[in-house]
């Protein structure tokens, strides 16, 4: 089953609780939460304290996408937020294995993230240590970017690399309802949407997105 994962980075910060309440009323299972350090990416967004506060006020599963340099210095704090899914960028550390193993040891689902310029072949030696693969479909850090079409080929290739394993493919960046459908057809099961959901009519946008990946 393909799922839409709303990205809280796209929500209205002045009405965050309203947006969280809306997503829960819509039976959202997983919330995508960005953590940006101003170094790995230029933007700065939700730190562990803010994520923990959101988590305490929500029933959703939290999927924390770590966009930070030196993830080992932040991982304990992210685990302490209570997030059930945690992903680390392949490009952010020379020790991706140990990051993934630490996430699993803490009883959480471990994800590896690859940037648009990173080939999917790097996933091969990580397959025993991951529950999901997050394929960035924009350059991470800024909302409102255009989906990189070449990502569809990367999703299909990644699906082949995964084979029969129980590993899910997630996509993030520039997704609207038409693109969500294409990503789902290519093999993505977890589809992150920010800007295209939190616009004028959230309810209509969300319904259309869910409908597109049915
Ligand atoms: C961007 C973040 C995304 C962001 C996506 O670096 O990782 O999660 O919220 O926003 P849209 O869907 O608007 O591209
Ligand atoms: Zn993200």
Helix content: 25-40%
Order of helices and strands: EHEHEHEHEEHEHEH
Query: According to CATH, what is the topology?
Result: TIM Barrel
Q: Which superfamily, in CATH terms, is the homologous superfamily?
A: Aldolase class I
- Bound small molecules, deduplicated: D-xylitol-5-phosphate, zinc ion
Structural class: alpha/beta
When the domains are counted, the total is 1
- Could you name the CATH class? Alpha Beta
Low confidence ranges: none
From the N-terminal CA to the C-terminal CA, the straight-line distance is: 8 Å
EC number: 5.1.3.1
GO biological process, one term: pentose-phosphate shunt
Cofactor: Zn(2+); Fe(2+); Co(2+); Mn(2+)
Family: Belongs to the ribulose-phosphate 3-epimerase family.
Please name the defining characteristics of this protein.
single chain; 214 residues; alpha/beta; TIM Barrel; eight-stranded parallel sheet; 7 helices; globular; binds D-xylitol-5-phosphate; binds zinc ion; metal-binding; Ribul_P_3_epim-like; Aldolase_TIM; EC 5.1.3.1; D-ribulose-phosphate 3-epimerase activity
Question: Any overview of this molecule?
Answer:
The chain has helices at residues 16-25, 48-56, 75-80, 96-105, 151-162, 177-186, 202-212; strands at residues 3-6, 30-36, 61-67, 85-89, 109-114, 132-136, 168-172, 190-193. It is of the alpha/beta class and 214 residues long. It has a single domain (3-212), classed as TIM Barrel (Alpha-Beta Barrel), CATH 3.20.20. An eight-stranded parallel beta sheet has the order 1-8-7-6-5-4-3-2. β6 (132-136), α5 (151-162) and β7 form a beta-alpha-beta unit. The longest helix has 12 residues, at 151-162. The chain is globular and about 45 Å long. The relative contact order is 0.15. The mean pLDDT is 97. The structure holds D-xylitol-5-phosphate and zinc ion (ZN). Residues 7, 32, 34, 65, 172, 192 line the site of zinc ion. It is an enzyme of class 5 (isomerase). It comes from Enterococcus raffinosus ATCC 49464.
């Amino acid at each position: 089953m393909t799922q839409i994962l709303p990205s809280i980075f796209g929500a209205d910060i002045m009405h965050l609780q309203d947006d969280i309440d809306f997503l829960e009323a819509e039976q959202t299972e997983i919330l995508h939460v960005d953590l940006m350090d101003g170094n790995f990416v230029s933007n700065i967004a939700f730190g562990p304290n803010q994520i923990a506060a959101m988590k305490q006020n929500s029933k959703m599963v939290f999927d924390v996408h770590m966009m930070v340099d030196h993830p080992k210095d932040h991982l304990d704090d992210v685990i302490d937020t209570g997030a059930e899914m945690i992903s680390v960028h392949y490009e952010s550390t020379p020790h991706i294995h140990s990051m993934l193993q630490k996430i699993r040891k803490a009883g959480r689902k471990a994800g590896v993230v690859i940037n648009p310029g990173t080939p999917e072949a790097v996933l091969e030696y990580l397959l025993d240590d991951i529950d999901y693969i997050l394929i960035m479909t924009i350059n991470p850090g800024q909302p409102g970017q255009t989906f990189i079409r070449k990502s569809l080929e990367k999703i299909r290739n990644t699906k082949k690399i995964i084979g029969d394993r129980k590993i899910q493919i997630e996509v993030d960046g520039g997704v609207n309802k038409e693109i969500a459908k294409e990503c789902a057809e290519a093999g993505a099961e977890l589809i992150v949407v920010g800007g295209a959901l939190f616009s004028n009519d959230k309810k209509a946008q969300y319904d259309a997105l869910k409908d597109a990946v049915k």
